[in-house]
């Protein structure tokens, strides 16, 4: 390890440091961390070993989402079939009764035709769901195969791992784009990389249609329909989405009532003293009150229900709290967020995009104090031998500014470092190769950073650096 | 994995809606048969309908019963998933340091797509992102993301609006296409020649490597556009090429040029000559392509591999350690994302190290701008703060050898 290479004369340890004979040497051999990770916890083999199981941390939604979708698909089928059965048996019983009573055979034929049509309609619906079911299973199978591929790779250095990880990045990107509502680019990227089975474009498109209907369309109908379709799951979750949607529906009815009331001319009774008179606005308010009774009164949030009731007395333009905030259009953004949250929780999707999670961890694992250093020499731009660090690269530099840098317990430096008289440090091999190449006179050295015409020093002025 | 696959195959094969659909079809047939009967024997309508009731009911009950395999199959698959992901919770928002910087994320993605040559996806994305700008969300480290929002937006706009990057990468892919598919070196050589000075300052051999490959191609009988010619003329063309083009390389690559010229002696039978390796090297094209990509990106200040790829991959490797850590830190009410330095070491493969790292052997702290590594006259290096502590401004003994020195003799090491 301590074998001096070509610059033996500058090896000051042996030439200038006298060592007392009776004490054991305290000099440890220098560590060459680049080739020798001396931390016993991390041997080279353990550093590159691929643990497929722990890699699954990012892959759970990949399998969960289609499973949840196929469960919902199944429940829809079950509901159709149950309702269809009930309906058919009642209609058939009615038709039988009617026939026995005197109805003409023509009437019997007619009701049979209706029944056949109903059944055919149900069959078509079930066939649609069956197709969807098979599509989901096919994609689940493709996903399992994709994960299986990972189990077949042993090392992080394997080019197969790189292929796999490239595909994962595409998936994470498509997932991110879909979450942000960038559907066009998500679809294009998935298609161009052939990962359609590994991403959930349709499901996210449906999700965003509903989100936009709230945020931009200011409509509750689509979201409420979604709540109906996912009733069981939502009940298990116990969220407030449906209640909040109903509340909004009520708020809008009250708002319309008050606005129509201006036209009716019965609405000017002063602060808080509005009575429900006659007219268009008034009847809308009555409707709203009935709606609240039906959908809101069951809530045990008495404070909120009380506030909701108060809306009947306070008009949107009165600006009286706590009612004004219920009238605020900000509530639509709140509902949109709430819907997304509920949707993602229901389908086991992480709250934040997995791309963020993976990147956050990766930025920190790669970041070093040098990446945002203001004092160190700008080596990355000038030297061809060092690849540019991904954190220092324009793409990630600002993004990584506020994340913690990686922790190291051992130095990682090139082996056999030499310090030149100008203070620059350089590996002895690199120094030798450079000086041979530029034809420096024997016994002299030039700094690779200084180029061919840089200053030359005597070899003796170059000093070995010991990094423990 | 096998268990999950078996379950899915079962769901695909039989445990699905197909049987129930058949049952519904049978019900439809029952109804149709009854209809036909009433048509031919109208007077028997009441009895036909009455006897229809229980078969129809039974048939639909069967349809419902036949849903069971699908129901159980889905449940079983769900349980198998639970088992597979036991102890692997979904990463929570505490592990997200980036939602507060959505514009920078979008910028990184746009640049990634461009560098991968996905130009049309990139332009669609940039379009969509401009139409619907992302909303920042608070993160543990940046609870008030709106404060920086407009600054980040401006920074990101540069990358998002600029067609420059696309032009750059368009040029890069054109040259790479010519290299890899057309075996045409000319565009690459022209590119390198225009940047000869910068490349040389970086210590890059690209231009010479390209010209050497051109020489080899000519030698074995291709013309300068990559087309095969009368092979006997090859060595002469190569020789002419060397005479006109190798001048600038004479000093820096004297040895290599000499070798190439030496090969001329074997022009009739290069295969058996000592120079065979230069002439029949299958990977030479891929090597110059990679070396070209690296230099091209470096001159733009970009790393050769996509930083987004390297960072997400490193992140996936780091995540198990960080999530384990998170459970410990939760008790102390801190998040790893808000620290200055990660509290644990992440075991990354050596290919993920890009900077030299100096850890002071005395304090075990990493060197920073304010605490740089210092070399004592004996050659041992410790961090500046350790040096100050040990020396207290006066002569002191190196902790690793008997050498004594004054702190003012220590020199900052730029790693
Ligand atoms: Zn860096
Ligand atoms: Zn020492």
From TrEMBL, chain A:
Q: State the compartments where it is located.
A: Cytoplasm
Instruction: Give the organism, scientific name.
Output: Massariosphaeria phaeospora
- GO MF, one example: zinc ion binding
Q: Which UniProt keywords apply?
A: Cytoplasm, Metal-binding, Zinc, Zinc-finger
- Please indicate which superkingdom the organism of origin belongs to: Eukaryota
Q: Single GO cellular component annotation?
A: GID complex
The RING-Gid-type zinc finger ranges are 389-450
Chain spans, region Disordered: 1-37
The entry sums up its family as follows: Belongs to the FYV10 family.
Cite the Pfam families for this sequence: CTLH
How is this protein named in the record?
Answer: Protein FYV10
For biological process, the GO terms are: proteasome-mediated ubiquitin-dependent protein catabolic process
Residue limits of the CTLH domain? Answer: 219-261
TrEMBL record, chain B:
Q: Which residues form the RING-Gid-type domain?
A: 360-401
Major localization class = cytoplasm
Report one GO cellular component. GID complex
CDD domains assigned: dRING_Rmd5p-like (cd16652)
Instruction: Supply the InterPro entries for this chain.
Output: CRA_dom (IPR013144), CTLH/CRA (IPR024964), Fyv10_fam (IPR045098), LisH (IPR006594), Rmd5_dRing (IPR037683), ZF_RING_GID (IPR044063), Znf-RING_euk (IPR027370), Znf_RING/FYVE/PHD (IPR013083)
One GO BP on record is: proteasome-mediated ubiquitin-dependent protein catabolic process
Under what name is this protein listed? GID complex catalytic subunit 2
Please name the source species.
Answer: Massariosphaeria phaeospora
């Amino acid at each position: 390890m301590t074998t001096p290479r070509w610059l033996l004369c500058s090896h000051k340890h042996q030439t200038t440091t006298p060592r007392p004979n009776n004490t054991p040497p305290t000099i440890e051999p220098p560590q060459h961390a680049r080739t020798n990770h001396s931390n016993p916890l991390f041997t080279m083999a353990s550093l590159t070993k691929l643990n497929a199981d722990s890699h699954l941390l990012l892959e759970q939604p990949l399998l969960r989402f289609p499973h949840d979708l196929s469960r919902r698909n199944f429940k829809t089928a079950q509901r159709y079939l149950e309702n269809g059965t009930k309906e058919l048996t009642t209609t058939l019983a009615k038709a039988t009764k009617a026939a026995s009573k005197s109805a003409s055979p023509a009437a019997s034929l007619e009701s049979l035709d209706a029944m056949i049509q109903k059944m055919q309609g149900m069959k078509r619906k079930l066939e649609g769901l069956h197709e969807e079911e098979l599509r989901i299973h096919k994609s689940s199978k493709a996903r399992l195969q994709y994960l299986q591929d990972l189990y077949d790779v042993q090392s992080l250095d394997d080019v197969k791992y790189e292929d796999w990880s490239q595909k994962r990045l595409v998936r994470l990107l498509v997932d991110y784009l879909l979450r942000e509502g960038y559907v066009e680019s998500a679809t294009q990227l998935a298609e161009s990389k052939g990962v359609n089975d590994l991403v959930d474009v349709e499901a996210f498109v449906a999700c965003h249609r509903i989100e936009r209907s709230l945020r931009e369309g200011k409509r509750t109908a689509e979201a409420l329909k979604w709540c109906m379709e996912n009733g069981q799951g939502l009940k298990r979750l116990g969220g407030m989405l449906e209640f909040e949607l109903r509340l909004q529906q009520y708020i809008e009815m009250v708002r319309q009532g008050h606005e129509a009331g201006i036209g009716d001319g019965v609405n000017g009774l002063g602060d808080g003293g509005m009575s429900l008179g006659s007219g268009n606005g008034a009847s809308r308010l009555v409707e709203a009150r009935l709606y609240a009774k039906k959908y809101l009164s069951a809530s045990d949030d008495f404070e909120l229900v009380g506030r909701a009731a108060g809306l009947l007395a306070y008009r949107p333009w009165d600006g009286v709290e706590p009612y004004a905030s219920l009238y605020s259009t900000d509530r639509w953004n709140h509902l949109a967020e709430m819907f997304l949250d509920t949707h993602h929780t229901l389908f086991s999707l992480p709250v934040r995009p997995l791309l963020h999670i993976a990147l956050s961890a990766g930025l920190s694992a790669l970041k070093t104090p040098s990446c945002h250093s203001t004092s160190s020499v700008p080596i990355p731009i000038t030297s061809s031998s060092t690849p540019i660090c991904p954190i220092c690269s324009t793409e990630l530099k600002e993004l990584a500014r506020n994340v913690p840098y990686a922790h190291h317990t051992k130095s990682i430096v090139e082996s056999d470092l030499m310090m030149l008289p100008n203070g620059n440090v350089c590996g002895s091999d690199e120094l030798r190769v450079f000086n041979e190449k530029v034809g420096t006179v024997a016994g002299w050295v030039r700094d690779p950073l200084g180029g061919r015409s840089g200053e030359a020093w005597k070899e003796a002025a170059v000093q070995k650096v010991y990094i423990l | 994995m096998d268990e999950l696959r078996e379950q899915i195959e079962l769901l695909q094969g039989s445990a699905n809606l197909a049987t129930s659909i058949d049952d519904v079809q049978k019900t439809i047939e029952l109804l149709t048969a009854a209809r036909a009967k009433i048509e031919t024997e109208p007077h028997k309508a009441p009895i036909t309908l009455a006897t229809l009731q229980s078969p129809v009911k039974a048939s639909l009950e069967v349809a419902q019963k036949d849903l069971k395999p699908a129901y159980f199959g889905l449940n079983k698959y769900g349980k198998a998933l639970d088992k597979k992901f036991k102890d692997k919770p979904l990463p929570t928002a505490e592990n997200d340091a980036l939602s507060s910087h959505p514009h920078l994320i979008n910028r990184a993605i746009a640049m990634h797509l461009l560098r991968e040559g996905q130009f049309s996806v990139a332009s669609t994305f940039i379009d969509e992102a401009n139409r619907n700008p992302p909303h920042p969300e608070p993160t543990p480290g940046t609870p008030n993301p709106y404060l920086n929002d407009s600054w980040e937006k401006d920074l990101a706009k540069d990358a998002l609006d600029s067609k420059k990057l696309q032009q750059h990468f368009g040029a890069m892919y054109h040259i790479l296409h010519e290299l890899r598919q057309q075996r045409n070196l000319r565009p690459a050589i022209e590119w390198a020649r225009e940047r000869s000075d910068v490349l040389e300052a970086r210590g890059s051999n690209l231009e010479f490597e390209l010209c050497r490959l051109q020489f080899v191609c000519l030698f074995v009988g291709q013309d300068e556009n990559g087309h095969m010619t009368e092979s006997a003329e090859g060595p002469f063309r190569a020789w002419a090429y060397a005479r006109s083009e190798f001048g600038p390389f004479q000093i820096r690559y004297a040895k290599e040029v000499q070798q190439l010229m030496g090969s001329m002696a074997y022009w009739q039978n290069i295969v058996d000559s000592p120079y065979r390796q230069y002439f029949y090297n299958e990977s030479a094209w891929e090597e110059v392509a990679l070396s070209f990509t690296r230099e091209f990106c470096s001159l733009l200040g970009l790393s050769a591999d996509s930083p987004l790829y390297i960072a997400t991959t490193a992140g996936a490797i780091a995540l198990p350690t960080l999530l384990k850590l998170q459970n410990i830190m939760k008790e102390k009410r801190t998040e790893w994302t808000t620290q200055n330095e990660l509290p644990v070491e992440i075991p990354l493969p050596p290919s993920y190290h890009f900077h030299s790292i100096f850890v002071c052997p005395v304090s075990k702290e990493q060197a920073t701008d304010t605490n740089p590594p210092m070399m004592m006259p004996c050659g041992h290096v410790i961090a500046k703060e350790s040096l100050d502590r040990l020396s207290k401004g006066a002569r002191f003994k190196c902790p690793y050898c008997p050498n004594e020195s004054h702190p003012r003799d220590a020199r900052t090491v730029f790693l």
